[in-house]
Amino acid sequence: MSRLLRREWQVALRAKGAIINPVAFLLLSTMLFVIAAPDTVGSDAAAGILWTLVLLTQLLALDGMYRRDFDSGVLEQTLVGAQVPFVAVLTRIFMQWLSTGFIMTMLAPALGMLLGMPIALAPAIALAMLLGTPALSLLGSIGASVTVGFSRGGVILALLVLPLFLPTLIFGAGLVAAAETGSSIMPQVYALSLISLIALAIAPFATLAGLKISIEMQ
Amino acid sequence: MLELEEIVCERDGRGLFAPVSISVQAGEYIELTGPNGAGKSTLLRTLAGLHSRYSGVFESVDCLYQGHRLGLDGLLTPLENFTWFLGLEEQTPDHERFLGALQRTGVLEKAYQPCSDMSAGQQRRVAMARWLLSSRSLWLLDEPLTALDASAQKVLVQIISEHCQAGGAVVCATHGELAIPEKRSVRLEVVASTAETPTPDDSLGVRTSQG
User: Fold this and answer.
1) Are B87 and A215 in contact (CB < 8 Å)?
2) pTM, rounded to two decimals
3) Would you call A78 an interface residue with chain B, using a CB distance cutoff of 8 Å?
């Protein structure tokens, strides 16, 4: 486990694009919204826009989640050689979340302010992202695993995964909206946690099955 | 070590070759031959557990599989790749051993360079060094001669011979002959194609209707 994590860490540090690209995309697309639709800044729509952009950023990052390992044969070796391939998949998902979801959680309050949300909402935005983004990485991993064999899997990945992201989007934006109106955020907190936990229970197994199918289809 | 009984691998719902039965004992080198498309790679993938559509039964010990995709992470150095790979086998990394294996296959000077900076042949040599480190006794090698120069081919033959002498077994799909004295050849025969095979006219028709 520790050696799997170490490899993931070494790769993440060397393939800098994997961390920088999503951050740059999220930042630029938020700026585009501020420039193109100044009316939305400070409006009720801001939380929804932020969540939508996070979703799209995650989608962009997911496309490459298993591609490098698939093309190099590292994935084959993992399935043949690993005592428990499940652990390798879980490690990969964790690192994917760390390099996208976690970083976006840190950035979200600042981006929220860029979209005109009051600073008092920053904790609520960060909480919503922290509880919601793991589900995006986990569910997205399933989609990435079945599309990794296609050379242009990006569009299919989007079609597969975006519907799965909907509950997270609804409750994530809902949490921020509830905090804004001053009502209790606990229902949304429970819902987001539940979605992420269910995803954690299902995703590693589904991903492993998806990767096996992808490797067999080539 | 490896028992195959009436194995037929399938692709797109049809068998690739006539049923194969082999029994591989410790110390044996088996050469898998056959024309392109006969299913040599698919058979090796089946034995490695990467291909599940087949009929027949086989029994196998844990194996080392070397496919066309080498399984080296281009961003990592050979040493880091070995650490990861042996981690899968739950071996503790030993840098002295790693360097020894790299020296054996002639790429010691590349030990601290990312694998993506190497030529195809050098990457093959790094992959070969990994076989020496693996604890698995059954090796499944798919076209190991690819991209190797004369000196590397000599090392390859030595490594395989030594592995067999040490009680291991090797199943190797190849078109080129490996200079190994004691070997058994298994030839995969393509089954006679059935009426499903499209004629050139048919495929042309399909293409026109799509275009």
Assistant:
1) no
2) 0.89
3) yes
